[in-house]
Amino acid sequence: MELKFVDPRALKDNPDRARRSKSSPQADALLLATIKAVGIVQPPVVATETDGGNGFVIDEGHRRVKQAIAAGLEEIAVLVVPRAEDGGAMRSLVTTIAHEQLNPVDQWRAIERLVALGWTEEAIGIALAQPVRQIKKLRLLANVLPAMLDHMAKGDMPDERQLRTIAAASLDEQKEVWKVHKPAKGDRQASWWAIANGLARTRMYARDASFGDELAQAYGIAWVEDLFAPADQDIRYTTDVDAFLGAQQEWMTQNLPKKGVIAEVSNYGEVKLPPKAERVYGTPKKSDHTAMYLDREGKVKSVHFRMPDAKKPKGKAADDAGGEDEAVVMPKSRPDVTRKGIEMIGDLRTDALHEALSRAPVEDNTLLALLVLAFAGQNVRVDSGAGGDFRYGGRFGRHAAALFDAEGKFAFDTDTLRIAARGVLIDVLSCRENISKSGIVAVVAGGALGADGFLANMGTEDFLSCLSRPALEARAPTRRCCRGRG
Questions:
Q1: Average pLDDT over residues 333-359
Q2: CA dist., res. 363 & res. 357, Å (int)
Q3: Which of 112, 162, 288, 352 has the CA that lies 20 to 30 A from 76?
C-alpha cells in the first residue's frame, strides 16, 4: 500500500464497483461542502490498470473523487493497492456495506469537539452543509441524561420540541422520569411524548410581560435565558407561573383605563364580559368600557364592550338618578386561594392522611369500613374479569403479595392483614388536585382517623403568597380574637 498525490481527473471509474445508483443531490452537496471546508479526510483507494497503462482505477471513493473535481482540487491523496483478481468488486462491496452514517449522538460529540477547537456553529453548519438550527438541536444533547443518550445512539430520537423539553429539565428530574418511561427490554422505541410530558414546565416569556423590572423584583421573578432560542428576540423566561400571572394582574390593576374592568376567561380562552354586554369590534365610543384580561399564554389583552342603555325611571326617581354611568360589576379578578395554593392544600392534607394511616390507632371494623369506602373513590377503577398473576396487579400487587406465604398459599396473620390494609388505603386515598384525587371519601376517612392532627404547618411564605389580600385580611381578626381569648 502506497500513498500518492494525483490529479483526480486522471483517475478512472471501476466498472466492477458495487454502488451504481446515483446518490441524492443533498448527499452530494454535503460531501462537496465538507471537501471545500476540510479537504478529503479519507483518501480514495485506487489500483494500477491491468492493461499495462500507467493510470489508476478507483476501487473505493468514487463520490469523493467526483466532488474533489467539482471543488476544483488540482491534486488529492490516494492509497495505491495491488489490483485484485476480481477487479476490486468484493472490496468495493464490503466497503460499501460496512459504511454506516454517524448516529446523532456521535455527531453531537464530534461537533462538541470541533467547538472546543474553536469552530463556530455557523462554520460547522457550512462544513456539514446543515442549517445552524440543526447544529443547535444536536448540541441540546449536552443536557440529556447519559442513559437517554445511550438509547438515542441506537437511532431512536425525540423530535425537536420533545428534545428541548427534556434538555431544559435537570438531570435528577430526567432520571426519575426515565425510570418510569424507559422502554422495556427488547423494545427499540421510547415513549418520548410521555417523557417530555412528564418533564414539561410552563414557560412564561419576558417578551409577553407587560410589567417592568420593579414588579418583577417585587414578585421574585428571576429571568432565565433560553440559550437555544433564536437570537433575534427576547429569550428570557421564568417557570414561576403564579408570580408571572400575579405581576401581570397587578400591572392591569395599576393601568386600568377610566372605564376599565379586569375580566376572566372561560375554559376555552374566551373573555367573560358582564351580562348583557355587547362587544365592540370597531372604533369604541367614549361611553364604551374596556375589559382587560390574561389569555392562555399569560399575555395582557383588552377588548371593548358596550352596556345597554338603562331604562329611565319616571317621576322623582328620575330626578334623583342623575346622569352618572351605571357601574359595571365584574367577578373578582383573583380567587382567595390560587390554583397553586389549592394544590398545596391537597398535598398537605394527603400527607397528613397517609401519616394518620401509618401511625394512628385504628380498630379493625373501622379499617375494614375504610377499605370498602376507599374503593368508592373517584380515582379507583376496577376492570371486571381482568386476569393475571397478583405480581402484575399494579400498585396493589405488593400488598396482595404480603398475604401469601413462601409456598404461594393464601395465608396470613392479623398483623400482616392490618399492615396490608393500611398500605392499600395509603395508595388509594388522596386529596391531591390531580387524577389521583379520591374526592369526598378521602375527607371522610381523614375525619375518622383524625388526620388534622398530623397536618404540617401551613403558615409558610410559599403558601401565604397563594392567598389574596382580602383572604388574609378576612382571617386576621379571627386570629387576633383567638389570641385574646387564650
A1: 78
A2: 12
A3: 112
- Residue 292 contacts residue 263 (beta carbons within 8 Å): yes
Q: How confident is the model at residue 209 (pLDDT cuts 50, 70, 90)?
A: very high
SS3 sequence, 385-409?
CCCCCHHHCHHHHHHHHCCECCCCC
Q: Which residues, in sequence order, are CB contacts of 193 under 8 Å at separation 6+?
A: 162
d(CA 349, CA 367): 19
Instruction: Count CA atoms closer than 13 A to 356's CA, side-chain side.
Output: 26
Q: Which of 9-23, 37-51, 232-246, 329-343 has the lowest mean pLDDT?
A: 329-343
Backbone angles phi, psi at 324, to 5 degrees: -75, 150
Fold observed for domain 2-98: 3.90.1530
Q: How far apart are CA 418 and CA 406, in angstroms?
A: 19
- Name the β-bridge partners of 12: 57
Mean pLDDT of 354-383: 72
Cβ-proximal residues to 198 (8 Å cutoff; 6+ apart), any chain: 177, 180, 181
Query: What nine digits make up the cell of 3?
Result: 500513498
Position with higher pLDDT, 470 vs 139:
139
What number of CA atoms fall less than 13 Å from residue 143's CA on the CB side? 17
User: Cell numbers 400482616 correspond to what residue?
Assistant: 416
The full set of domain ranges for the chain reads 2-98, 104-199, 256-334, 339-475
Q: Are 430 and 349 in contact (CB under 8 A)?
A: no
Q: Is 87 left (phi over 0), alpha (psi -120 to 50) or beta?
A: left
